[in-house]
Request: fold
Amino acid sequence: MVGMLSVERLVKRRGSREILTDVTFRAAPGRVTGLLGPNGAGKSSTLRILLGLDRADAGTALVDGRPYRRLRQPLRTVGSMLDGSGAHRSRTARNHLTWMARSNHIPTRRVAEVLDQVGLGAVGGTRVGRFSYGMCQRLGLAAALLGEPRALVLDEPVNGLDPEGIRWIRGLLRGHADAGGTVLLSSHLISEVDQIADDLVVIAHGRVVAAGPTGEVTAGYPTLEDAFFALTGPTAGGR
Amino acid sequence: MSFPNTVAAEIRKTATLPATMVALAVAVLGPVAITLINAVGVRAALRSGRPELTAYTSPVEAVFSAVPIGTVGAVVLGVVAVSAEYTANRANIGGGRQITTTLTATPGRLGVLAGKAIAVSLLVAVAALVAIPASLALADKIIGGYAPPTPDGVLSRSVGAGIYWMLTALTALAVTVFTRNGIAPIIVLVVNSSLVSVSVLLSHLTPLARFLPDLAGMSMFAGDLLAFDEALAPLPGGLVMATWTAGLLVLAGAVFRWRDA
Amino acid sequence: MSRSHARAAATELTKLSGLPAVPATAVGTIGAAMVITGALAAAPLGADDPVAVVLQAVPYLQAGTVALGVLVVGTEYTDGQIRTTLLCVPDRLAVLVGKGIAYLAWATGTAVAALVTGLLTARVALSTHDVPVVTDSPVWRVVGAAAYLVLIGSLGLALATLTRAVVPALVVTLSLILVVSPVLGTVTPHARYLPDRAGALLYLPDPAPPLTPVSGLLVLLGWIAVTGGGAAAAFRRRDA
Reply:
């Protein structure tokens, strides 16, 4: 299926420590999938492997059935955002997006379009080093949207955004999924995920402790927060 | 926070930077390694009875010609003590620089700078105290019996080399306060600690070049290695370099105080 | 060169022109060429041939191309931009090929501009003396100097790929070619196999037997192949 993200029995070790153990889940088109877990649970490591930045010690992570590193113009298939802007601080936002566009044969008019879309249209010529944290997040989002991809992979997208920005990104992601796109986002903010995710993958100590439609995962608990602590707490799931 | 606490904090902060460890390793192992190669080369030339193959035959010169690599270590120490404050850490690219923490912990700008200067001086002094005696002992052991009699003034030249490193590190620190970025000071100061230093070039143009900080300071240890006729005597040379360094530090203090963090 | 490599090169060129440090380094190198050749030409005991004057300036100018080489890769790591780069171009080898081509373009332009500026400056400075200006050094040495500057800077690129940081790569490369090499040159004949000394035969008039300009070039290329190969292998294997 176009835009399907699938992670299969992923294992990652750092030194002798196993930071991911048999992580398996899917993010389907038309749905917003929330990857939820406490700090250090393995959310970012999973996303980095899915995006071809780090290598897995075992298992596969596929985009449209192919590893990220095999994609010819990856930005047109998956848009992604990891922590921060991902730009050298001395370049302008516009130059950053322009070189990204050039690398994937994306028309340069998209640069101005995404800058306007994320609300940075007026500061495209400003050096990234002068940006606030929230502006860096917006630039990261602009980079994710640049190639008009079917799938979006976002690591902690609401960090540093103001209330208006949070509402805006919620609408953006909802619209993307409703239009048939795939959204995979990670967060440690329970209320945020609760409001937006159709499917949940709860991860703790490098293992998936629950996965499925939000209603199923939270069934039997008064709130998602209660479910989260029951699933990820020291007495549950992990070691 | 009292000044001794500031100094202690700066020593701890500077000494635990990974870059500082590398700089100290360069300042200590660099001269020792170069001395080793120098000394082996000199011994080979002396043994084969052709001392003209090398530029000098004394174990002492084998050591002092290796001093410039220690200078590189001193430059790096001075630069990173300041530039590390201005490096953004990855998660907080918007402005997560250590200088913010430093200046909220110790609002007195001059105290911070003085603390850094003392920390850097101490670290360089430690490096010099290890590197120079070790190099002298090594050269003597290798060349030993083949060597001409030891010239006078080894002790004062050794002290001079240590002071030269210290003043160079403080100059690097002051210059990095101006630039807030390590790249330019590293390029300029490493090029200038080499034999093709721009100051040596200027010395062919004007005798005033001997008052430039590096040429003046080199007279403290270089002896005949300084290919330059009008060099200052060691003591005035050291004083000239110290004056330059003090001037730059005062200027850096003024800039640091006046500028927003 | 495949299409993806061409695109990677175009990407890297866009990236470099957006980094103020890169044009600043190029301009700084050209400015340094002007000042240094001017000083050399004005020195009373200096050469009276513009080509010879410019060749004496090459050891200073190499700091410029080394800095360019280091910046091309090192700046990827200052603010974590390397992640964005690898998300755009997941093929590690294509990234390195693109960077290599972009470096060659900037370094060649900078080296040629600096040497030409140096030649003109030396000519003007010498003509203000009363000595007659001679031109008996072959011009191919200036071409050799340009090639040397470009090649020695690529060592900086390789070392920055290995160290993943600007300052360590700068310190190692510059101290090797500017501090360690001259010191060793005074004590051991084996120093002639160091990258800068072997490569210097491309522009220096006096040969250092048994090396010739051609074998000197091969020695320098050997150094570049070894460090570059190691850097490429590390870059492909490592997590971003």
Remarks:
- Chain A touches chain B through 14 residues (CB under 8 Å).
